[in-house]
């Protein structure tokens, strides 16, 4: 009886995992693997495009720069448009709908999450926040 319960729980987890990855749009296999890791590391909490959107538009006062900052400070209100760094360097669109290179390489994704989360939020983003963010971006397609 216990084995049957464990099997049903494991099956339910796999279904939840696959449904979350499917909600993230057309991710390649390495990115699906990264999303699976985020899901596992977040305790299996479902990713939310709405929460990813809130994170993207969240404005906060940077403690050192003493100015309001958000993802949109560089990436614009419309992720399908090109952005600019604070020093004026162009940034390709963040949305994979207009930039097929976005969210294709897990190493780049991790690199930019680390840099940008630290720059904007003054901390690293959680696995749940990363999954939500990618889910939001993939929903824009």
Structure description:
The chain is mainly α. It has one domain: Orthogonal Bundle (Cytochrome Bc1 Complex, Chain D, domain 2). It is 55% helix and 6% strand. The protein has six helices and four strands. It has helices at 2-23, 29-41, 49-57, 72-75, 106-121, 127-139; strands at 60-61, 68-69, 83-84, 90-91. The strands form two sheets. The chain has a two-stranded antiparallel sheet with strand order 1-2. A two-stranded antiparallel sheet has the order 3-4. Helix 1 packs across helix 2, helix 2 (29-41) crosses helix 6 (127-139) and helix 3 (49-57) packs across helix 6. The protein is globular, with a radius of gyration of 17 Å. Residues 6-24 have low confidence and may be disordered.
Features:
single chain, 141 residues, mainly alpha, Cytochrome Bc1 Complex, Chain D, domain 2, two-stranded antiparallel sheet, 6 helices, 55% helix
Lay out the secondary structure.
Blueprint: H1 2-23, H2 29-41, H3 49-57, E1 60-61, E2 68-69, H4 72-75, E3 83-84, E4 90-91, H5 106-121, H6 127-139
CATH architecture descriptor text: Orthogonal Bundle
Number of domains: 1
- List SSEs in N-to-C order: HHHEEHEEHH
- What count of helical segments does DSSP give? 6
Task: Summarize, please.
The protein has about 140 residues and is mostly helical. It is built from six helices and four strands.
């Amino acid at each position: 009886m216990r084995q049957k319960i464990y099997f049903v729980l494991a099956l339910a987890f796999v279904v939840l995992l696959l449904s979350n990855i499917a909600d993230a749009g057309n991710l390649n296999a390495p990115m699906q693997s990264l999303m699976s890791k985020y899901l596992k590391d977040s305790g299996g909490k479902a990713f939310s495009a709405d929460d990813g959107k809130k994170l993207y538009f969240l404005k906060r006062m940077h403690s050192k720069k003493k100015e309001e900052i958000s993802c949109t400070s560089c990436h614009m209100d419309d992720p399908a448009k090109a952005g600019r760094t604070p020093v004026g360097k162009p940034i390709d669109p963040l949305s994979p709908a207009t930039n097929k290179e976005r969210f294709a390489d897990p190493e780049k994704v991790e690199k930019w999450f680390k840099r940008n989360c630290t720059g904007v939020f003054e901390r690293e983003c959680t696995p749940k926040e990363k999954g939500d963010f990618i889910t939001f971006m993939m929903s824009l397609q």
